[in-house]
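Batch manifest, entry 17 of 40.
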Amino acid sequence: MQKEDDGRQPTRAILPQVLLSCGCCVVGISYGMSTGHSAVLLPHLQADNSSLYIDNDTGSWIASVYAIASPVGCLLGGLAMDIWGRRKINFIGNVGMVIGWLLITFAWNAAMLISGRIVEGFSRSILATCITVFVDELADPTFRGFIVSSIFTCVSVGIMAISSLGALVDWRTASALAALPSVVNVISLYFVSESPTWFVRKNRMEDAERALQWLWGPGNEAQARDELSGLIARLRPRQRYHHKILDSREIIQTFRDFFRPRIVKPFLIIHLFNIFQAFCGLGIFTYYTVDILSKTRKFGTQVMDDYSTTVLVSGVRVVTVLVSSFLMLRVGRRTLAMISGVFSSVSSLCLGGLLCLNSLEFGSPISPQHEANIAFVLIIIYAGAMSFGFFGLPSVMIGETQPAHVRGFACGYIYTVNDLLLGAVVKIYPWMSSNLQIHGLFFMFGISCVMCTIFVYLFLPETQGLTLQQIEDYFRKPNIMWINRNKYSDGRTESEDIDVDIISKPLN
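Output type: structure tokens
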């Protein structure tokens, strides 16, 4: 039987990969429009001529409740996709997004707006958790990074789209138009197969074989059978008790699995990589773009108005994410992360220093217009550098680094903590901006970016071009730090450690 990690295998059929890419693009656009909505919604609602006026406190709730509601969707989505399937849960997430947008479109009070944002946050987190796992299990290893990162390219497209709509039309029209990508994705899911990994875990071998034949295409039946044999060898021993024993046994075993080094190592590395992102500032910058831009300039001096700058920043993010997506076909994840970390650290610290000069009693020695120009360039570099690697890589690597039998739960938990942190920092942004002031905020971003860059250099593994099995095999080695990997080149790995007690127990 040909092993799954055999590099001589041909690539999977192109059409399924194209369908996956298109589906990811639509999900990304919907995700981005939802994420960037508050940045353009709140100024409209707080304008003097607003049809539904809100105060600052209500506005902070509208911005933060979206992220605060997300952990529920992340955790439930991670568990649900292991029970009912990746494809079905993605469908539910898209339907929820449509409902959330419609609630906002027809809102007549703040409570209805907040309700719409809660539904959006819940549904968006389901999509974020499920889509990366879904694609990791369906995509060819050669294109996996590119396809998953295309989600984040389109997230930036979605942010730019909602920013443009916010500048051109009223907030109700913008909200209605933002529901269209989710409608399109509901239709597109009809043409995509369920994950063969999930089918094998549920002992649905015929369905798994059909899914693999769809992935490999006509004429590659042998490759489909070989991959099915590999999936059965890796996953079925853990699932033999599924026939007659309740799913509670699977949940208990999932928790037990987390205490094994080959599970704990990738979990903690990717978890910490994601936690750093909450403090590196891109989430706050996305939610409060207009407000942050207005605080980075002196009165009467600006290169562009805040709304035009928001659209430009969104465009820069689209370009940088698109470039990094194509680079993932050839360039390693670590290289992209290091480039992103260095430039985002330098730009945010320099911007903090520039704005700090402005707060001193004797004032800045730089003329107001030159200061505005420098701040404008540094903001563009910061947004572009963060989007180049730090924005997408944590999510790209969540699904591909976690072992198959804990992937759903691990991804759900990590996304849950991410959204709790994001919701917390977004909620306290008004307090931070008034107490730390804008220069202190960017100093915090810069220090966090420096710490994240050091962490990436020491611990983050390289996964570009590797199969999921090869990535699992790396984490069986004794090393924790990536820079020490060559010390363990003698082939020593952690044993498979399959649960013999569970396999040997008779089925009742």
